[in-house]
Amino acid sequence: MPRRRGPTDQGLRTRQTILRRAAELASVEGLEGLSIGALADDLGFSKSGLFAHFGSKEELQLATIDAAREVYVQEVIAPALAAGKGLTRLCALCELFLSYVARQVFPGGCFFASAMAEFDCKPGPIKDKIAEIQAAWMETLRRAGASAVDAGELGPHTDPEQLAFELEAALLAANWYFHLFDDRSYMARAADAIRLRLSADATKRGRATLATRSTDTTAVTT
Amino acid sequence: MPRRRGPTDQGLRTRQTILRRAAELASVEGLEGLSIGALADDLGFSKSGLFAHFGSKEELQLATIDAAREVYVQEVIAPALAAGKGLTRLCALCELFLSYVARQVFPGGCFFASAMAEFDCKPGPIKDKIAEIQAAWMETLRRAGASAVDAGELGPHTDPEQLAFELEAALLAANWYFHLFDDRSYMARAADAIRLRLSADATKRGRATLATRSTDTTAVTT
Questions:
Q1: In whole numbers, what is the pLDDT of chain A averaged over residues?
Q2: Backbone angles phi, psi at B154, to 5 degrees
Q3: Does A114 contact B at CB distance below 8 Å?
Q4: B193 vs A32: CB contact, 8 Å cut-off?
Q5: Contact between chains at B193 and A162 (C-beta distance less than 8 A)
Q6: How many Cβ atoms are within 10 Å of B73's Cβ, its own excluded?
Q7: Which of A51, B4, B74, B185 is least surrounded by CB atoms within 10 angstroms?
Q8: pLDDT value of residue A70
Q9: For chain B, how far is it from start to end, CA to CA, in angstroms?
Q10: CB–CB of B68/B112 below 8 Å?
């Protein structure tokens, strides 16, 4: 017999629906483009109902970022952590990011790339939150690289922080140019850049790992 | 005896002042954040006076992009073309971009990186104009890479289009992370990434060219 849902469950689901839509809109129009009124119209909710959930625009923006982070964890981070360790994880993080952009999980591309570009020069709680999330993402890439060095898949001279920066650079550029030129080949360019960059530092063991990933890379970007 | 300035000269200078300020504001607040009213307030001009220059917000946005392009040509493109050909030009383009970001020629970072991020998913004349400018920039990088191959500075297996994408990726990532984390070390990360990427494809002649550039790279990023 199914458990009866209380009003709290219902409220949470409504909140989730609102925030998921807010994140979709913000990926195209920007977080500053979000308004409680426009979101209420879009969802067919009353404006006062939405105000009951979010007291201010900033509260809505911060909650939207949290909701987008949950999507990102579900689409990119969690499956990459489950895929394996070291170089396998590092490849999976990159492949899953490109897949998440190519599948247009958010219609405006990577939510966090958009948010970072919008708020990189606007001090305040929104910028702080985005900086914290981007730092965590870079740290996830760095750790996977460091563990690939520890496992002997990347050579000892590899600088995991520099490597994380370079991989992130290719991923972000793919996100922008795919949308600006409406050209999916930028996904393959990023995948090629990443594969070459990793190959340059890979040991024999690392090259064996990379060989098992090449099919996956093609799969997610076409 | 100095030439008497007609009203046309005066009008042109006023227009330039307006658009330069508009580009500065847009690099922080976005092109959608521009308004004729707010710009008039900021400059101490009358709103009706500004309307005489620009009939609509979109006209102001398009004129602002043109003004920003002039700045970009002056700060990055022209001195790089004057620096030399082939690999020298390619290095100069990258160094001058990093310098233009580090010197905060626009307070919000690269005007075009911001504009691309804002309009990459918003079809219309603004997106078209930004796409055209970004395509021209990528073509400038590609041509310099191709001429470095022709000059025997980069090996014959170099793909100049892929190389342009990878260099642009490092430059864009430096722009975002420098501002997001208020951390100038991202400039050095990008310069390192670019130097390593070019070294990987460089011939003996190319390595000699790169050796002459290393001081410049440090100079522009510190």
A1: 92
A2: -115, 145
A3: yes
A4: no
A5: yes
A6: 12
A7: B4
A8: 96
A9: 44
A10: yes
Q: Mean per-residue pLDDT for B20-38?
A: 92
Q: List pLDDT tens digits, range B151-194.
A: 999 999 999 999 999 999 999 999 999 999 999 999 999 999 99
What's the complex ipTM?
0.92
Which ranges of chain A have pLDDT less than 70?
Answer: 1-7, 214-222
Distance CA A98, CA A109 (A): 10
Q: Which domains does chain B have, with CATH numbers?
A: 65-221 (1.10.357.10)
Residue A62 Cα, gap to closest chain B Cα (Å) = 17
Contact call for residues A191 and A200 (beta carbons, < 8 A)? no
CA distance B37 to A156: 58
Number of helices (H), then strands (E), belonging to chain B: the values are 11, 0
The pLDDT value recorded for residue B104 is: 94
CB contact under 8 A, A121 and B189: no
How far is it, in rounded angstroms, from Cα B162 to Cα B146? 11
Which residues contact residue A56 at a Cβ distance below 8 angstroms, ignoring those fewer than 6 apart?
Answer: none
How many angstroms separate the CA atoms of A15 and A11, rounded? 6
Q: Cα(B153)–Cα(B103) distance, rounded to whole angstroms? A: 30
What is the structure's pLDDT at A217? 46
- Please give the pLDDT value at position B6: 56
Q: Are B53 and B15 in contact (CB under 8 A)?
A: yes
CA distances from A218 to A81, A138, A176, A195, B199 (A): 20, 24, 19, 11, 27
